[in-house]
Amino acid sequence: MRTAGNQEPGKMSGSRVIFYYDVVCPFAYMASRLVEAMAQRTGADVVWRPVLLGGMYDLIKAPQGKSGSATHTMSPAKLKMQAEDLRRQLARRGVPYRDPTHFPQKTVYAMRILAGVKDQRTRIALSHDLYRAHFCEDRNLGDPSCLREIASGHGVDVEALVQSTAASQQLRHNTTEVVERGGFGVPSFYVNGRLFWGTDRMFFVERALGMRGVAPERLTTPPSSGGAAKLSFYFDYSSPWAYVGFMRLGSLVESVAPVQVNIEYVSILLGALFKETGTPSVPLTTMSTQKQTYYQQDMEDWCDFAGVDLNFPDVFPIRSVLPLRATLASQCDPAIIQTLYLAAWRDNKNIGDSDVCHRVLQEAGFDADRLLCDASSEPVKKQLFANTSRAVSDGVCGTPSYQVNNRNMVIWGQDKQSTVEDLLCGWSDISTAAKL
Q: Which residues form a coiled coil (predicted)?
């Protein structure tokens, strides 16, 4: 973690964080390697609370079902992006990893054993060994002999806990508890009445513990020699996350100075991209109620962190074809991009309506007549189509997405800005996890 600005982080003593996990999940594995260091930094007590991920899916009626994986519902482009991001984040944090042959595994017995272990230290140590067996040694945790061998080193009676009604009830209680608190996946963290999901949201957990100066971790500092770098920024006005990402570009450029960043704004039609990649036109509507609610709160957290004003528009999804073409007609003038983004996502103006779009541009001092006239030209239409085709070809699965120095690598999501900043400063992404 890094400290943002000049704020001095302060610990909130006596706080407790509940860490909900299942040994089936690689992201929860990564969190298990980081959560104890977080506890030391914040002075908080961390309670490891095992849950059954499939049981969570069953309770929230997740589309993948209780026996599936969230990856089963992803488009090939998103699946590839997530796999690359997992490896990248593991490598950035120095966490050893090997792709498991058996995935997803049935972990009901493993999690029942962990739920039945009363001693917290034993539960933590056993959890680490089970994670290591799964994600470093490629062992099958669904094999009773494997569980016996691992658990015996901790003095745990596997047969007794597997058959234990109390352990089964405890696991069911933990799983129901996290769902009632808004959970839908692991890792989840519950602190001060708030639930946070994902390893990349652990810095929000620290902020909730009073360390308001904490920000996503950076691995590199800008080279004193400066230099230049190119950043390609894929965006569509229809995405609130792309709006937040665009509004954060100023802080991104500032954070890598004296490196001079040349930003290429690549406007794309997100709906056309989704159609090509097999993604629902409005992904949020296909999610469980818990996940939808969480993402709304998550967006508020990011806007608070970044100092971005956001008011969800009355007209959504936004018909962004016209404003995107007008943007291309302006040669992707960043002032026009900002004007249209603020109108849509701060001021609740329907920029997909031609009259509204014209008025927004005109009132901001731009030649709206010329821009909207040029927006209907064939060269502009072809350019928008070409940009979208380029995005599909490069593996973009959503906006905002970033490319640094035309590398054959796409970073998806404004929440990965710290990774983009490191790349701009010369960090090399080896695209593999730490060596075992």
A: none
**What average pLDDT does the segment 152-158 reach?**
96
- Beta partners for 267? 235
Q: Which of 397, 237, 399 is nearest to 326 (CA)?
A: 237
d(CA 116, CA 118): 6
Beta bridge partners of 188: 20, 197
Task: Specify the DSSP class assigned to residue 330.
Answer: T
Tell me: the pLDDT tens digits for 69-120? 666 677 889 889 999 999 999 999 999 999 999 878 899 999 999 999 999 9
pTM above 0.85, yes or no: yes
Q: At what angle do helices 368-375 and 321-329 cross, to 10 degrees?
A: 110
- CA atoms of 335 and 245, how far apart (whole Å): 15
The label of the residue with tokens 């039609």 reads: 269
For residues 306 and 5, the answer to whether their CB atoms sit within 8 Å is: no
Apex 334 CA angle, 329 and 340, nearest 5: 75
Residue 295 structure tokens: 């993402």
Residue 13: predicted pLDDT: 53
Token pair, residue 366, equals 């731009």
138-160 burial code (b ≥16 CB/10 A, e <16): ebbbbeeebbeebbeeeebebee
What are φ and ψ of residue 203, in 5° steps?
-70, -25
Domains of the chain: 2-214 (3.40.30.10), 228-424 (3.40.30.10)
